[in-house]
């Protein structure tokens, strides 16, 4: 596609990014309401503990000689949407809210394109899961993260099957938020995840 054609095309990142922020806001409001009288649980938006994790990765001299070394400091880490922490036990679960379009009634299968769900798979990486377990204090048998999928992806027959397969053995660690009603979301947290933080 040429430059002129690209300029005239809608910027899907801007559109989907705005929708994702709206979904994160709904999530934040739901848990702010849930925890408003709690002296035990807090919702932290964009926890900062992982914003520099990659900067600290030690590389061998051989590898450092083979890559670009800019000779200045830069920030390199991950941004997580939320953390829910038990202030008493200090146990924490880290949360990503992934909003994505999907193949639903009246739309073609191509409406399910997008990779927000695939990007959430980074949490299964051995190094990252080890770090999240260390900070979350939930133990080695528990996934220390919760991914909330929202938008049409939560009703997409392909994507729902993918997530069900990917989270085999850990169905509590993902949630298909099919409608803006916060009750099912809060109920899932209270019954499936809150006990892990006690």
List its salient traits:
single chain; 198 residues; alpha/beta; ECO RI Endonuclease, Chain A; five-stranded mixed sheet; 36% helix
Task: Describe what you observe in this structure.
With 198 residues, this protein is α/β, with parallel strands linked by helices. It has one domain (9-197): ECO RI Endonuclease, Chain A (3-Layer(aba) Sandwich). It has helices at 3-8, 12-34, 61-66, 116-119, 126-136, 157-166, 183-193, and strands at residues 41-45, 82-86, 92-99, 145-150, 174-177. Strands 1-2-3-4-5 form a five-stranded mixed sheet, sandwiched between helices. A hairpin with a 5-residue loop joins strand 2 (82-86) and strand 3. The termini are far apart. The relative contact order is 0.15.
The neighbouring-strand order within the major sheet is: 1-2-3-4-5
Mind telling me the C-alpha Rg? 19 Å
| CATH topology title | ECO RI Endonuclease, Chain A
Give the SSE order as H and E letters.
HHEHEEHHEHEH
Chain-wise SSE layout:
Layout: H1 3-8, H2 12-34, E1 41-45, H3 61-66, E2 82-86, E3 92-99, H4 116-119, H5 126-136, E4 145-150, H6 157-166, E5 174-177, H7 183-193
Summarize the structure.
The protein has 198 residues and is α/β, with parallel strands linked by helices.
